[in-house]
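Example record

One chain of 440 residues, shown exactly as stored in the release files.
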Amino acid sequence: MKLIPAVLFVLVFTGIASAADSGQRPNVVMLISDDQAWGDYGFMGHPQIKTPALDKFAAESLTFTRGYVPDSLCRPSLATMVTGLYPRQHGIVGNDPPVPASLGHSKRLARRDPLYTAVRERYIDRIDHVPTLPKMLRDLGYVSHQSGKWWEGHYSRGGFTHGMTHGDRATGGRHGDDGLVIGRKGLKPVFNFIDDAVDRKTPFMVWYAPFMPHTPHTPPQRLLDKYMKLTDSIHVAKYWAMCEWFDETCGQLLDYLDQKGVADNTIVVYVCDNGWIQSTDNAHYAPRSKRSQYDGGVRTPIMVRWPGHITPRMDTTHLASSLDLAPTILAACGLKPTAEMPGINLADDDAVAKRDTLCGAIYEHDIVAMDDPAASLKYLWCIEGEYKLILPNAKRITDESPELFHITADPHEQKNLAAADPQRLQAMTKKLQAWWAARD
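Predicted structure tokens for this chain:
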């Protein structure tokens, strides 16, 4: 597998109104939800879940209701957000590497074995060989702060100048460690970072990826009591309450930008790492959500707010991807994306209008081979206009057939049209297979 090399970047005129053009670069804030279904927001029409902070943010943003992540698993998805690359490009296609055969392939038994620890460290090395947003912005004088979910070792491995995650496997480091308390135990580390950056008149980037509404679902009692009145399932009530608790923390961060007088010169983006459908009878996720090839796993609202530069509107037609976040942020800061970044600048209306297709791939949770993403492939998926195609990898999924959905009319993917529309199935299959074949 060839990893994308780090490259030099040059300042360019982006064609949109940019604060960077006048020498004042915008601050950057990334709001990242963890395990939340695409419809589980007030502004997306959920009948019970209340998200007033994000509802307000959506009204102030360029909001894409048809947003997607390329994979429905957190680590590959988060790595895509910070690099602007497909998982097959940055090389992080699953949450954990394979256990060496000499250890019997049991991850539970091998967890603290030095041999497996070394393999985990080798897997983290991928982040050292690709450009990331913090690395690129650091070259322009930005400081950056990591909080919440982060799988790639110490926060500095991603280019962050400040952060909370130590990444030491010997003391519990895996997917965020000390950073996972953010939001659940307040936002003081983030606020302190913003205070310091503002005092120093230094442009800043914030990666706010709290472990919310992710399990454990431990919302404040006041919120749990509220939702227990709306459902017979304690598990659903806890999840709904977690969604509102997460929303409250986003509101606190957005309010703080206002208090510090920097909101107008800050580009804020929102996305969720992957979907979640709450089981009614246990604390786990239901089928067709997290880790799946369905919209319950890969769809998310995507929002971009930059007052005075990006016109707020609700876009229910065009397709957006988490791959677009890096190009959009870089353009706002006066930088070109790398040639390897497949995404577009969401502030470029022409680019948004021209896109008619998104593709993605679903891989195993634990990768099969360190240097061959294809070995872990389970499904390919593609959205073209109003239709979505899912292709099982026949080498790993032997009992399933292609599925074709009219995704705008059937958003929960209940009616497979593969047999009824063979011409569309054939055309989309050819396009999707060509996208996958071009991966190298």
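Notes: The chain has two domains: 19-354, 355-440.
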